[in-house]
Hints:
By secondary structure, this protein is α/β, with parallel strands linked by helices. It is built from ten helices and six strands, in the order βαααααβαβαβαβαβα. It is globular and about 50 Å long.
Amino acid sequence: MCVEVVLFDLDGTLADSLPLIMHTYRRVFGEMGIPWDDGNILGWIGRPIVDIARYFAGEERAEDFIKRYQHYYHLDHDRYTRLFPGTLEMLRNLRAMGLKLGIVTSKGKTGAWRTVNFTGLDQYIDVMVTAHDVDRHKPLPDPILKAMEVLQTRPDRTVYVGDSYFDIQAGRSAGVKTLGVTWGVASRAELERYRPDGLLDSWADLHLFLEK
């Protein structure tokens, strides 16, 4: 397989940040009196915070929702954020293979860069596209197309790796190969319904896919 670029989602794919995200949402929902439903909020993870705020808090309270979320997210970030095991080693190996690497996330620029710098991902990333870098977000292809434009590559030479069906939809729409990881927010069965080009149970599976 002639791959030049591997792009990754951030939360739930590289970073084990779901505990932080769920902790933060619980605090915000509780303070604002919004009914809590694990399954409902899990289905929205991977979308921009603006969309989530409007859906759960309504247009009039969306700004308050976002401010509260950002406050608690940054307050507890370092306590709850970790990388999934083997992530830095995997990126180091891909870089040694001569591949360009990037992150495409629906997280805002400030939060995304905090996670990347805190975890050491920054030393391996050639480009990062956040919610602030495009007008239209996943599941639309725009963020992935933006990353490819920056790295001057083509869809047939690009792989996108993510943990949600939003990632698979965005990758397929962008014309790139898509891989779903089974340790994130979506189950294997949910990912399979969106027909990724492969599923990863560990980072070792990524190397096997790239060697085909």
